[in-house]
Design goal:
Order of helices and strands of chain B: HHHHHHHHHHHHHHHHHHHHH
Distance between the termini of chain B: 43 Å
Shape of chain B: globular
Number of strands of chain B: 0
Oligomer: heterodimer
Strand order of the largest sheet of chain A: 6-7-8-3-9-10
Strand content of chain B: under 5%
Distance between the termini of chain A: 60 Å
Largest sheet of chain A: 6 strands, mixed
Number of helices of chain A: 10
Shape of chain A: globular
């Protein structure tokens, strides 16, 4: 069963198209890594599918429901974890989770027990009642992760979930993602960290300048591009390969002048 | 207070809520927003508390209540009903607009809501109502704090009817201030971007801080409560001002005068604010948030314009060639010159102390009870210009300690990682930049002013004074702890044990000024002292330039 279907998805800001017709079909239980250079339209795609913005062209449906008409129902069943640690940091972690939990219409006792339990698992229990403006970026990211997952969604969107985390936390998140996958969740995430994408994704979608330029399993992409790692595939597909080498050479030349 | 207002409002909505409004979600959003308001440090008083207070909002509200007491005193003492009412409404309009622009802007301009609330299952009507409840709660608590005393006084002095009517016109005035704020933001956003708004909000914050700093000192001295018989005539353009409409509407009730002009004013007082509010809710606010969302989504497009621009050579880069000897020194000079012009926190802390200069001048020169024209006429026969020579220093001196702090203080690793052998040169460059940028212009203006009042005889005093000021500034710099510019964390406390140092500084400064004062008695002496002052200042500067790393604190 397909969980996400987009056909001819386009989106413009002030007459400039940032998405130029994205066609995707994601099945239940898939882990999709969505990668592309900065400004390629990754976050925008996620925002459209998650029902955050309804100004777009084309058709998008999630769980077989049209996002334009059933946005609320879809939002209740998905978890969205934004990038750049966007949260109200004058609140404490417990207060913030209570806020989010209530927006998902969870029962108060459930919110409280879940928040404490999950914060404890992330080693944040002793800081649970201090304001989050004292938190490090990694700690905020953990709270965001809890807030996006505490209503046990079926489909999970993560926008750069690993940025700013220390090595240990990266391993933990990776492990959580693969456990979620085993529990039948569908995960759609964007990341810059290629070797993580390479390891945990069933399917990798590369976009550049608002268009899908590659779509398939890691092995598929490897055959297509006839190159080793995802990083190499990525640079060769987005045309950065030759460019980067020349830029690096120029850079050294200017340094020595 | 905010919680009671919120509760009352939520109760109200619960009774009248329609089925497409999700009350539980509305409640949690509004409650959370109000809680966050409580914890947000108010913009205009921010720099005074280094530590995060528990409820900064409460402090602001108390200050506003005290301002309200002043206003109620005014209502008691001013004899003309119209004048006191115009004052009251103008004051409310001003303070509310200022508060909204400087303080509430962070709420209005905040786009994190889009990332936090929009992905959650909340329908747009609920979210809209939650925002309305939040903004109304915010406005009402400030309105109550500001007007509770004036309102009480009006009830007692002018009767219940006037009191009730006044509560209505005050609320309409608040609606007006909200409208103005949106209008201002809308206009800025039309011609600039989000950053532009933040810059302009920054200037308003500086203005507010200066206003409060100066206002507290000057206004009580200006108002003579014994003698408040302002006579009052309305010019044609007065009828364009909202406070006048409100006051006229009240006046109509007060003296049961319903002639055509009063009726027109009643019409303006009630219809225009309501119309403006409607306009704001229907068009202004939605278009504003749409633009803001588009801006935050479309950063790439905006960036292109910036990088395409080629910057012309900065003034500081030209000046540093003339002013500085070594490359290190000119690096310090340029950095301090540029960053003091761009860092909002520095401006927010330093500009008010510049404004205090006016206050000092006002108090010292005009402190006696005589009227201003009398003082003006006798001014040229006094030695008051000595105040103008040395007053600037007291204001500029604060720049020395402020310039050490910066929010991004960690960036000062660059001083450590580069091969600087004489950090003293950075400090001397910093001192030169601060003197040239802030002291010299102020001193020059005061010099021109004094030249006008006292004539050419003060020229030698101002020359001697200039070098003495430089000397004092350098002395203060070399006697206090040495910090490289922008290298300290803003929150840390001052170390104790500075008392002896301060006393020493004051003794030396007093000695210098005292010498100058005594020298005034012999006409050639000030001129003769100039070389001594120059030489000492020069030697001191050399000493500061030689400061080794050992003497630099961090």
């Amino acid at each position: 069963m397909s969980v996400i279907t987009t056909s001819g998805l386009k989106k413009q800001y002030n007459g400039i198209y940032v998405l130029k017709g994205i066609n995707l079909d994601v099945n239940a239980g898939q882990v999709v890594g969505y990668i592309g250079p900065n400004g390629a339209g990754k976050s925008t795609t996620i925002k459209v599918i998650a029902g955050i913005t309804d100004e777009f062209e084309g058709d998008v449906s999630v769980f077989g429901l049209d996002v334009r008409k059933h946005a609320l129902e879809i939002k209740q069943r998905i978890g969205y974890i934004p990038e750049q640690a966007a949260l109200y940091d004058v609140l404490t972690a417990i207060e913030y989770l209570r806020f989010v939990g209530k927006l998902y219409a969870l029962n108060e006792t459930v919110i409280s027990s879940k928040s404490w339990e999950l914060l404890r698992l992330f080693d944040l229990a002793d800081k649970a009642e201090t304001r989050m403006n004292t938190y490090s970026k990694g700690m905020k990211q953990k709270v965001l992760l809890i807030s996006g997952l505490m209503h046990n969604p079926e489909l999970i969107f993560l926008d750069e979930p690993l940025s700013g985390l220390d090595a240990n936390a990266v391993i933990l998140i990776k492990e959580i993602l693969s456990q979620l996958k085993q529990n039948g969740k569908t995960i759609f995430y964007s990341s810059h960290i290629m070797d993580v994408v390479e390891k945990i994704s069933d399917r990798i979608v590369i976009i550049d300048k608002g268009e899908v330029i590659a779509d398939g399993s890691f092995e598929n992409l490897q055959q297509q591009a006839q190159q080793g790692s995802l990083e190499n595939i990525f640079t060769s597909l987005t045309g950065g390969d030759q460019q980067n080498t020349t830029t690096a050479k120029e850079f050294i030349k200017v340094l020595r002048s | 207070m905010d919680k009671w207002i919120l509760k009352a409002m939520l109760g109200f909505i619960k009774i009248f809520s329609k089925k497409d409004v999700d009350f539980e979600r509305l409640k949690i959003i509004a409650e959370t927003k109000v809680l966050m308001d409580r914890r947000r440090a108010p913009a205009s008083f921010r720099q005074k508390q280094r530590k995060e207070p528990k409820n900064p909002l409460l402090i602001t509200l108390i200050i506003y209540t005290i301002l309200g007491i002043f206003m109620s005193l005014m209502i008691i003492f001013i004899k003309s009903f119209m004048v006191s009412m115009i004052f009251l409404h103008a004051y409310l309009l001003f303070i509310m607009a200022m508060t909204l622009i400087t303080d509430f802007s962070s709420v209005l301009l905040d786009t994190t809501d889009n990332q936090i609330i929009l992905p959650k299952p909340v329908n747009s009507r609920t979210l809209f109502l939650a925002r309305v409840v939040h903004i109304l709660t915010y406005l009402l608590q400030f309105t109550i704090a500001l007007t509770v005393f004036p309102l009480a006084v009006t009830f007692v002095k002018f009767g219940i009817l006037s009191g009730i009517l006044l509560s209505a016109t005050l609320l309409l005035t608040v609606a007006f201030s909200m409208f103005f704020t949106y209008l201002l933001y809308g206009l800025i956003l039309r011609f600039g971007n989000e950053q532009k708004i933040k810059d302009i909000v920054g200037y308003f914050q500086i203005f507010m801080t200066v206003f409060f700093a100066v206002g507290y000192q000057v206004i009580p001295r200006l108002i003579n409560f014994e003698n408040l018989n302002y006579t009052f005539t309305l010019y044609w353009y007065s009828y364009l001002l909202p406070p006048v409409w409100m006051a006229m509407a009240l006046d109509a009730m007060h003296q049961f005068n319903f002639d055509s002009i009063h009726l027109l004013m009643i019409f303006c007082a009630f219809v225009i604010p309501v119309f403006c509010t409607w306009l704001m809710i229907k068009y202004l606010a939605p278009s504003f948030s749409r633009k803001l969302a588009a801006l935050s989504n479309n950063n790439e497009a905006a960036k292109k314009n910036v990088t395409g621009k080629k910057f012309s050579k900065d003034l500081s880069e030209k000046l540093s060639r003339v002013m500085c000897v070594t490359q290190t020194e000119s690096a310090g000079f340029e950095k301090v010159w540029k960053m003091t012009g761009r860092d909002k926190n520095f401006k927010l802390q330093f500009y008010p102390s510049l404004a205090y200069l006016l206050v000092f001048a006002f108090i010292f020169v005009f402190k006696s009870g005589k009227n201003i024209s009398e003082i003006w006429n006798t001014l040229s026969s006094t030695k008051m210009f000595l105040w103008f020579v040395y007053l600037p220093m007291f204001s500029i001196a604060s720049s020395l300690s402020i310039v050490a702090f910066h929010e991004n203080y960690l960036a000062s690793w660059i001083y450590q990682s580069t091969p600087i052998t004489k950090p003293g040169e950075i400090i001397s460059g910093m001192l030169k930049a601060l003197m040239l940028k802030f002291f010299v212009p102020v001193y020059f203006i005061l010099f021109i002013f004094s030249l006008y009042v006292w004539g050419y005889i003060i020229i030698d005093d101002f020359i001697l004074g200039f070098f003495n000021n430089v000397l004092i500034y350098l002395l203060m710099a070399s006697l206090s702890r040495h910090y490289l510019p922008f290298s300290r964390q803003p929150a840390i406390k001052e170390q104790a044990g500075k008392f002896v140092q301060i006393i020493l500084q004051f003794l030396i400064i007093a000695l210098l000024i005292g010498t100058h004062y005594l020298a005034l008695k012999i006409y050639w002496l000030p001129g003769a002292l100039i070389p001594f002052s120059i030489v000492t200042a020069y030697l001191l500067l050399k000493k500061i330039q030689q400061l080794p790393w050992l003497k630099i604190s961090n």
